Amino acid sequence: MTTPQVPLFIPSQVCETVGKDPATTAPDVCMGLVQADLRDDGTSAPDVPANAGLPAVVADAKQKGIDLKIVVLDQNPGIDTPLRDVATEVGREFPGSTVLVLSPSFAGTYSPTFDRVTLEAGQDIAKVSGSPVVASQNFVTELTTPHFPWTPFTIVLVLGVAVAAVATRLLQVRGRKAATGKSPAGADS
Asked: pLDDT tens digit string along 152-179?
């Protein structure tokens, strides 16, 4: 039994990434062209000087063990959600890849390798980083930077508090028993 696929919304802005007119070309057709473009060097972006360093970022990520694909839209869609949909579609085409989709103000990601928290942290850094090359470099840096292990720390902290609460209660009970055992009844004056 296969898992039903959730319908994705591919924004018309993806057409401009591959030099097509969104008014005359369907977004699905443009998405196919983006995926074909990604096969060359792992990037699909408008051919402008600001995007020239993207293949080097992909190569650097590969040296760090990340199969990275980068898609750059030169205009924002109405909301940021479609960028994750584009990333998911690319991830389906390139299984095992980590995908970063950038627009001037938004970022969207997909990865079977990294957890959503790490991807979201990378997105947050990428979408405020200026040029697509710097944003992509910062994204890769976030993925490869060791993070404090909050989950184990939280578990140990909760267990420590629980042990301290039980120990405190046991000491209170022992203290009451000791106090009642030493003072004779009616000796209070």
From this structure: 889 999 999 999 999 999 999 888 888 8
Asked if pLDDT for residue 3 goes beyond 70, the answer is no
Looking up tokens 């205009």, which residue turns up? 75
Q: What is the 3-state secondary structure (H, E, C) of 18-84?
A: CCCCCCCCCHHHHHHHHHHHHHHHCEECCCCHHHCCHHHHHHHHHHCCCCEEEEECCCCCCCCHHHH
pLDDT tens-digit map of 38-56: 999 999 999 999 999 999 9
175, exposed or middle or buried, with CB in 10 Å at 0-12, 13-18, 19+? exposed
Residue 114 or residue 189, greater confidence? 114
Q: What is the pLDDT of residues 117-129, one digit of tens each?
A: 899 999 999 988 7
Give me the domain span that covers residue 69: 13-144
Residue 2 lies in a domain: no
**Sheet hosting strand 107-110, strand order edge to edge:** 43-44, 68-72, 98-102, 107-110
* 8 Å CB contact between 61 and 140: yes
C-alpha span between 48 and 14 (Å, rounded): 15
Do 112 and 173 share a domain, yes or no? no
Q: Taking Cα atoms as reference points, which of 102, 132, 130 lies closest to residue 34?
A: 102
Number of domains in the chain: 2
